[in-house]
Amino acid sequence: MRRFRALIKKEITHMIRDPRTLIFIFIMPILQLVLLGYANTTDIKNVSTVIFNQDNTPASRDLLDAFQSTGYFSFNYTASSQAEVNNLIGGGEAKVGIVIPPNYGEDLTSGQASQALVLIDGSDPTVASAALSAAELAGQVHGVNIKTQQLSLQGASIGGNTNPVDVRTDVLYNPDLLGAYSIVPGLIALILFQTATSLTALAIVRERERGTMEQLIVTPIRSWELILAKITPYILVSFADTLLILVLGTLIFGVPIRGSIILLFVMTGLYLLPTLGYGLVISTVARTQQQAQLMVMPLMLPAMMLSGYIFPIASLPLVLQYVGELLPTTYFIYIMRAVVIKGVGLSLIIPQTIALCIFAVALLGLAMWRFRKNLD
Predict the structure, then answer these.
(1) What angle do CA 212, 231, 247 make, to 5 degrees?
(2) Smallest Cα–Cα separation from 67: which of 58, 75, 59, 79?
(3) Is the pTM of this model over 0.70?
(4) Rounded distance, CA 85 to CA 91, Å?
(5) Over the stretch 207-230, which tens digit does the pLDDT of each residue have?
(6) Is there a single domain that holds both residue 161 and residue 184?
(7) Taking a C-beta distance cutoff of 8 angstroms, is the pair 249, 340 a contact?
(8) Cβ count near 257 (within 10 Å)
(9) Which residues of 150-201 form beta strands (DSSP E)?
(10) At residue 179, what are phi and psi to the nearest 5 degrees?
């Protein structure tokens, strides 16, 4: 038992003397608890919605109130044309569009069935399914309430009467609500994040751990040349992974590629810059490959849970939504789904492109500064 206790004491001493590893050992359970506890929800609320009300009568406003009272729809935009509705949905600002025709109130007054159109973005099947069910239910309940009022005034029975409100739904981009349409583009973002970050961090730490970093420093090669030579192979591997996933996703799961392939790979290259920056920053902090792996793990969980890959960002608590906005993965998943599934051009993904550029400059700048400081 004396030898056994001595070995236990030795291992505990090693853990205490390695504060980096100790910190990340305790960070992971906390992250798992918080993220899985708050983010793991199937409740879809406050779906961004654009309104195009061509009737603008009390009857049409009552219909909109019926939609809003469900809690599923958040009226963030008001459109003045059908084209504006399509642009807002295509650009991702709105997930749902409610279009009320100019004769809605007149038809309702005359006893005819009043129609309304609900357009739903199907690129995220989880949100689209909830919005579709909520829209159909809201239309049915509102129609029954109107019919009940009408028949009560007439003293008639409600049985055998048709619903005076006909809410028609149209799911765009993914009419069958196939999950692969959302999963495959998101997988590309997560795989690239894991591959580029992990391999870049490990490659540089490996040189330091083996003692060959000093040999590289004394050579005529410049620091930026060393960094570029280290990350270039992983950039090529990442592009190959992207192409492989797209091809397999199309052949196996039938995911269409509706957008420009050139734009897709340009955005992929832009996304790789901040992910490589993460790896370089980790490589300047970690001293061993084990430490580097432990530092990458806390980044992977938020990238999966808070980026919109599994759970819609709008359904997360407000604090976690802000955390998700600090992840480049959030913007790249949006870009991938928009280009692959919707076929949009650069004009509709400019805010996300700017965000990736900011991440690239900040993370690569920090990595270069720390790496140069370590070399000095």
Answers:
(1) 135
(2) 75
(3) yes
(4) 10
(5) 777 777 666 666 676 766 777 777
(6) no
(7) no
(8) 17
(9) 165-172
(10) -65, -30
